[in-house]
Specification:
The complex is a heterodimer of chains A (273) and B (320). Chain A has 273 residues and is an all-alpha fold. Chain A has 14 helices and no strands. Chain A starts with a helix and ends with a helix. Chain B has 15 helices and two strands. In chain B, α5 packs parallel to α9 (171-199), α6 packs across α9 (171-199) and α9 crosses α11. Classes of the chains: A mainly alpha (273), B mainly alpha (320).
């Protein structure tokens, strides 16, 4: 009886699951088909399996270069962002100085407007200083736009660490910097993990900024590469699907490692406001 | 805001030079703050101010500073532009669809997943996965899914004996198709947020209501929903901000077409600013986008989320 009452629930969830899964199945299996198979048999298993789409993607070299570029940009962005944000969050949470609240509000204002709003003047600015087709032209703005949310998360975490810990450290001869580096940062490891994961994902998925900054194919990141590849092979669906599948893999791998930090970071940010 | 526990540290700093050497003074503070502050001012606040400045000029973006001051002409041109009015309409339609269909759907799924059902962890994970893909990958994948002849969507419709649909190729269907993709990518994110909110509601309250004779719907309507309101307000906020700046998916899937029928503000801005090199006019678009998001954010926080924010401040206050 109870099982019967629950049947509609399962049906609804199953429909949602099929809705989510179908495009994935189409994409992943589609990469192993040729275009004739794709039109007659879009979601069934390939017969025969056609590996040439994938070997073409791996052989051409663009994919690997874009993978390296994306990784490099994500790592440098994240290291810079977390370092700068941690220093600033420490000042906001633990030090007294004139204008502290003013500067903090200044940072939080950054949360209110979307990145897209400033991307055009940013493009003009970066062109003027010659940072087009330079990874720094993507890295530095990504760091700057990541600062507000990262500073807010880290500040609230730093504030939660008891005053007594700081006093003990000071009595043991720690300077502000020593306390920050040797006590606070190790204690804040969970928060640092969360902001790191959020920063990596944001950088990895960024499309608009690399689109404006990079015209040199050797500089392009994966999201840009996928879009360019689609333009190049517009009628060869199977090959595009292979490329799409390949560029999903790193994100999925990263997610499988960092799932807990990502979800807790997002839900904490959203439920706390 | 200065806590009573930190104030003594400041006076000590000022009165004892030895303490200052130990690094608690204002100079130290600025040492910590400065790198972030410089980057933020130059690359976040600076460009926003620059776009205000550019928006008063007719300028192709090249060669030193703009010279040709034209006052509010860019804005009047914007106001009268069919394309821009379309941008606003398309953003509004997509937002309305998200608020009326996607968010209730996410909430429904969250309520279902909040019960003890088999495979709950799997579904939660599955629904969240589209969120971690880039919009670029999602866009390219769905361009193929929705392509007219051999795309997945129409092939499935044919196999089921249903008529084909025009998806992205007709102005009448393109917005709804985009909405489906947006929902595919983001409903799981909202579901996860709602689930976190639901798990924060004490079970005792719902049980008490049941003992008082409330049915499933009444418990949901009068206990769960009000207690979930702060979470819902956040998720609405994120949806609105997201639809104001919608770019990647639209740019990749339709480029704003056919015939500007799916163009958004951000797509127009990039089109005018980069392809047509009308940087002044394009800056006017970003100024309007900025004003819309600013007014919305301020208004929303002032009138809708005020109670939540007060709650949040007291919580962090208690944490100290």
């Amino acid at each position: 009886m109870k099982a019967l009452r629950r049947l509609p629930i399962h049906v609804v969830i199953l429909i949602a699951a099929v809705f989510v899964l179908l495009p994935f199945i189409y994409g992943i299996l589609g990469g192993f088909k040729d275009n004739a198979q794709l039109s007659t048999n879009p979601i069934g298993l390939p017969s025969p399996w056609v590996p040439s789409n994938f070997t073409d993607v791996f052989g051409a070299g663009n994919f690997w270069r874009q993978l390296v570029n994306s990784t490099y940009i994500a790592i440098v962005t994240t290291v810079l962002l977390v370092a700068l944000a941690a220093l600033a969050a420490f000042a906001f949470a633990r030090l007294n100085f004139r204008g502290r609240e003013f500067y903090y509000v200044l940072f939080t204002i950054g949360l209110m407007f979307p990145f897209t709003v400033a991307v055009l003047p940013l493009f003009v600015l970066l062109r003027t200083v010659g940072l087009l087709d330079n990874p720094l032209g993507v890295i530095l703005p990504q760091v700057a736009y990541g600062l507000p949310i990262t500073v807010i998360i880290l500040r609230s975490f730093f504030r939660a660490i008891p005053r007594e810990v700081e006093e003990a450290a000071t009595i043991d001869g720690c300077t502000a910097y020593g306390f920050f580096w040797r006590v606070l940062l190790p204690m804040a490891r969970p928060a640092l993990a969360t902001v790191t994961v959020l920063a990596v994902v944001a950088s990895w998925n960024n499309f608009l900024l690399p689109l404006l900054i990079f015209t040199d194919p050797n500089q392009m990141t994966l999201p840009l590469g996928v879009q360019q590849f689609q333009g190049l092979y517009s009628s060869d669906y199977a090959k595009i699907l292979a490329y799409v599948t390949c560029s999903m893999v790193p994100a999925l791998l990263f997610f499988s490692v960092a799932e807990r930090q990502l979800i807790s970071g997002l839900t904490a940010g959203a439920t706390k406001g | 805001m200065t806590g009573p526990d930190t104030r003594p540290a400041l006076t000590e700093t000022l009165s004892s030079p030895r303490r200052r050497e130990r690094g608690r003074g204002p100079l130290t503070a600025f040492g910590f703050l400065l790198p972030a502050l410089v980057l933020f001012v130059v690359l976040v606040l600076g460009p926003v101010l620059l776009s205000v400045y550019f928006s008063f000029y007719k300028w192709n973006g090249l060669g030193g500073l703009p010279q040709n001051f034209i006052g509010f002409d860019n804005f009047t041109r914007l106001w009268n532009s069919d394309i821009f009015q379309g941008d606003l309409r398309h953003g509004g339609i997509l937002l309305l669809l998200s608020l009326c269909l996607q968010l209730p759907f996410s909430l429904g799924i969250a309520v279902l997943l909040n019960q003890k059902i088999r495979g709950r962890a799997f579904y939660r994970l599955l629904f969240f996965i589209p969120y971690i893909l880039s919009e670029a990958v999602t866009g390219v994948l769905f361009t193929l899914v929705m392509s007219p002849d051999i795309g997945l969507a129409n092939t499935l419709l044919r196999d089921l004996g249903l008529p084909e649909w025009t998806w992205l190729s007709e102005p009448s269907s393109v917005l709804f198709s985009l909405f489906l993709v947006i929902s595919w990518k983001y409903f799981g994110f909202h579901t996860i947020i709602y689930l976190a909110g639901l798990q924060g509601i004490p079970k005792e309250l719902q049980e008490a209501a049941r003992i008082d004779g409330a049915g499933n719907w009444e418990v949901f309507r009068h206990v769960t929903l009000p207690l979930l309101a702060p979470t819902i307000r956040i998720s609405v906020f994120l949806s609105v901000i997201g639809s104001i700046q919608l770019f990647d998916l639209v740019y990749i899937m339709t480029g704003g077409g056919p015939a500007h029928s799916s163009e958004t503000m951000a797509v127009s801005m990039v089109d005018y600013g980069v392809r047509r090199t009308q940087v002044g006019y394009s800056s006017a678009i970003s100024v309007v986008m900025f004003l819309i998001s600013l007014l919305f954010a301020l208004g929303y926080q002032r009138f809708v989320m005020r109670r939540d924010l007060e709650g949040a401040t007291t919580t962090t206050g208690n944490l100290r």
